[in-house]
Design a protein that fits this description.
The chain has a 6-stranded mixed beta sheet, sandwiched between helices. A 5-stranded parallel beta sheet has the order 2-1-3-4-5, covered by helices on one side. It is of the alpha/beta class and 333 residues long. The protein starts with a helix and ends with a helix. The longest helix is centred in the C-terminal third of the chain and has 32 residues. The radius of gyration is 20 Å and the shape is globular. Helices cover 42% and strands 17% of the residues. Helix 2 packs antiparallel against helix 5, helix 4 packs antiparallel against helix 5 and helix 5 runs antiparallel to helix 6. The structure holds guanosine-5'-monophosphate (5GP) and manganese (II) ion. Manganese (II) ion binds next to loops.
């Protein structure tokens, strides 16, 4: 695999790196870490994200160089997609690229990844895409500078909610320790990338919690585009509200529906084991991880809500039955 990457890099002249829309810490961490690695190797490159880089990530090196679209005047011969489960996650940054499309290296950790690249480095056991990058950089003899370490640690900290999620292993912590040894500041990164949120985000949480429903193990809420506007909240991401709802002990699955300006509905899903929201997301045209996934549904909001509640309720029923069958087999066996 590493020889394939080396070979693609050797042939490349101008590299485009794209991460997903509604970027989180792993998205911007992966994007800026890859940019710094390319810089160290002497490449010409452009970093792109189809949405604005959230202000709390402005401490990351190269974050102010991230563009909303590739430079149309330049011909890119290599595209590195980071933290994107499928091509649509790159938004117009990819959709608007002229033909011929560049050669694609797809680096990601989503179990639902569609392997859309010419080279696919997809490891669903990695807790973040930056964890995969850390391994790749070592194999490519890239020096893990203090700045690269800050970018990589940001992805680890945000995707594991501060090393608290189910997939965290001793290896994850060893990678984090390596990055701290390289000069990354865990306290600062955690404060900046995980804890800080805009006041408009808290207003969205308030609106969402005022309107939450709980039925058959599912807790959910929805936010209209007018409520988003009134709160001064520009993103269509649920920014932590789904995580908050998923901690309700009587619930097994949580969902937040966010109506966009054009009327489509962004859905964010969470659950606890043995449930699996990636299954629900894929059924509805999206993707993600077993315990954290998402999709976009057509509007109006009320119809999207009905569709989603039905899918989640059916999944809870199906997955509860499957878990009971496994438990019964274990007892019998
Ligand atoms: P969040 O709820 O935080 O927006 O997303 C949870 C996880 O699901 C993230 O890993 C994210 O990349 C993935 N995800 C969210 N929305 C979509 C989507 O529309 N398509 C795909 N493929 N993945 C998504
Ligand atoms: Mn990620």
């Amino acid at each position: 695999m590493i020889s394939l990457i080396r070979h693609s890099l050797e042939k490349a002249d101008r590299v485009l790196v794209i991460t997903h829309v509604d970027p989180d810490g792993d998205a911007i961490g992966s994007l800026t870490a890859t940019g710094q690695a390319l810089k160290q190797m002497g490449f010409r490159f452009t970093l792109v994200c189809d949405d604005k880089v959230p202000a709390r990530f402005s401490y990351l090196p190269l974050s102010s160089d991230v563009l909303r679209r590739p430079d149309q005047r330049l011909a890119y011969d290599l595209l590195i997609a980071v933290d994107c489960g499928d091509e649509e996650r790159m938004g117009y940054a990819y959709a608007d690229l002229p033909d011929p499309r560049p050669f694609i290296i797809n680096i990601d950790h989503h179990v639902t990844n569609t392997r859309f690249g010419d080279v696919n480095i997809v490891d669903p056991t990695a807790t973040s895409t930056t964890e995969i990058l850390h391994g790749l950089f070592q194999e490519l003899d890239i020096e893990i500078t203090r700045d690269i370490a800050a970018s990589l640690l940001t992805g680890l900290v945000t995707d594991t909610l501060g090393f608290r999620t189910v997939g965290v292993t001793a290896n994850t912590l060893r990678t984090a320790a390596d990055l701290i040894d390289a000069g990354a500041d865990l306290g600062f990164v955690s404060m900046q990338a995980l804890n800080l949120r805009a006041y408009s985000t808290m207003k969205i949480w308030r609106t969402g919690m005022n309107k939450m429903h709980f039925d058959d193990g599912l807790i959910w809420t929805s936010i209209t585009s007018q409520e988003r506007r009134e709160a001064g909240f520009r993103s269509s991401s649920s920014v932590g509200l789904t995580n908050l709802l998923a901690d309700v002990e009587e619930a097994v699955m949580a969902a937040v529906l966010m109506e966009s300006e054009e009327g489509s509905v962004k859905v964010s899903l969470r659950c606890r084991p043995p449930y699996d929201v990636a299954e629900v997301a894929v059924e509805l045209g999206g993707g993600g991880h077993p315990l954290a996934a998402g999709c976009t549904l057509p509007g109006p909001l009320s119809e999207a809500e009905a569709t989603l509640v039905q899918s989640c309720t059916a999944a809870i029923e199906r997955q509860s039955q499957a878990a009971r069958a496994v438990a019964a087999e274990a007892v019998a066996g």
